[in-house]
Amino acid sequence: MRINVIGTSGSGKSTLAKRLASQLNVPYIEMDLLYWRPNWQGTPDEELYSRLEKLLEQPGWVLDGNYNRSRDIKWRHVDLVVWVDFGFWRTLRQVTLRAITRARSKQELWPGTGNRESLRRVFLSRESIILWSLKTWRKNRERYARDMADPRYQHLRFVRLTTPQQVDEFLVSLT
Question: Signal sequence span per UniProt (predicted)?
């Protein structure tokens, strides 16, 4: 099975994607890991797409991430798109708690990049993940709802999960 888990930053898509990959015993592929380089520099699209294409040749995987500009590559290979669509306040709370935890622990986010959250970056920067989540939450909901109705993607199976209970039920349904 090939699954792309999507959702706004802080929605819980990475947590779900890791659980799915473990449960299905398939590789977990993280778009952020493919994209981010040291000093918060991004990978050029051509290189990102090439690396992504190679990984998606595997017979099964769970892909964690949006990166909408890569949608045509991802969704050419995918069987199922799982949209984690929790409410605004829940998502805001989750992204805030995660960012603070990462800043306090000084955890490196992607091995070898040196990229870490800091309280300054979280609360006083234009690159704040909290600000990003605030700016993209509504846009993502509108985009994904359009995608689900788009005739170009009718060959895909979409699952929209709006509560933690639905996430648990979905995981049980796969066993």
Answer: none
